[in-house]
Every structure is written in C-alpha cells, then in structure tokens.
Task: inverse folding
C-alpha cells in the first residue's frame, strides 16, 4: 500500500473586488484578524473585464490582491471560502448596505499553480467539500504564468502575472 504524505503548505491569497477604499480597508482588517498578517498587497486594478458584479455592487469597481505571511494547509481552502462568504454579508451589514459591497475570493498559491475557490460548478472545476470547488486559474513556469483555456479574462492580465510571480517568489523563499 502506498503511503500518503501531508500536503505541502501553501500561500493563502485573497482577491478583493469593491468600489470604495474604506471597504477594502475594513475587509483587509477583518481578514488579518482571521488569517494573520499580510506580506503583500497589489496596487488597485480597475475591474472592467466583466459586468458580472455591476448589478450587485455598482460600477467603478476595483480589484486588489493580498497574501498572508503564514502558510496554510491547502485542504483548508473550502473552510476559508465558506468563512469569506459569511464575511461579505457581515461587511454589508456593518456599513448598513442592502447590497453586496465586497467580493472576497480566497485562493492558494503553490510553486506550481494558483487555485481559487468558488461556489460555481463547471466542467474543469474540482469539488472540494461543502459546495466549494477549486478553480485552477493558471500554472507557473520557471519564471512565467501559463494561461489555461478557462483562465478568467482578468487573470490573463500582465499586471496580475507580475503580482503573482512576485508572491510565488516569496513563497519559494518561505519553503526553502
């Protein structure tokens, strides 16, 4: 019988979408309380690749990525996604909004790939647990990002690639 080994720890990242700087700030503060200090933050990037969130969240949306300094077991991704879904509702309630004000997408970054958590099923997504799927966003080459046929349009952006390659380099230093 083949012996199993524990999964290597991975870098926990979050993709945030919102329209107000205050919402980003509050969201980050809450994520730090839950998952510990951050070690990277991207610049704000205009989120104009799709109108998917416009009805729920309004216009002038921005995206920002952050990563946690602590490494996590990859099998915690479903639990984290379930918690961030609740957190989205809590943030809306705190600011007394009846609309969704933030989208929080947790993901895990390893030396080989970026996997984002989602509640939406599709043919290429892997069921994890409790209605959460793993979406393999892209793979990493030695110093590059390898886009897949289902990579979201915004994740094809060189701005995103630069950020994730830097986070990957940090991760590789952490696991040495």
Result:
């Amino acid at each position: 019988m083949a012996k199993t080994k524990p999964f290597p720890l991975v870098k926990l990242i979050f993709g945030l979408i919102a329209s107000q700087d205050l919402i980003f700030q509050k969201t980050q503060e809450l994520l730090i309380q839950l998952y510990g200090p951050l070690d990277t933050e991207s610049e704000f990037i205009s989120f104009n690749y799709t109108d998917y969130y416009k009805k729920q969240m309004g216009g002038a949306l921005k995206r920002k990525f952050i990563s946690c300094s602590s490494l996590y077991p990859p099998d915690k991704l479903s639990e984290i996604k379930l918690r961030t879904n609740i957190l989205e509702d809590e943030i809306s309630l705190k600011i007394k909004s009846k609309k969704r004000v933030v989208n929080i997408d947790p993901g895990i970054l390893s030396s080989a790939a970026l996997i984002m958590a989602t509640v939406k099923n599709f043919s290429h997504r892997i069921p994890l647990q409790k209605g959460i799927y793993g979406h393999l966003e892209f793979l990493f080459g030695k110093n590059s990002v390898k886009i897949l046929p289902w990579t979201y349009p915004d994740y094809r952006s060189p701005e995103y690639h630069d950020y994730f390659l830097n986070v990957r380099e940090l991760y590789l230093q952490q696991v040495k």
Q: What stands out?
A: The helical segments are 21-35, 54-57, 77-94, 158-174. The radius of gyration is 16 Å. The chain has one domain: 10-174.
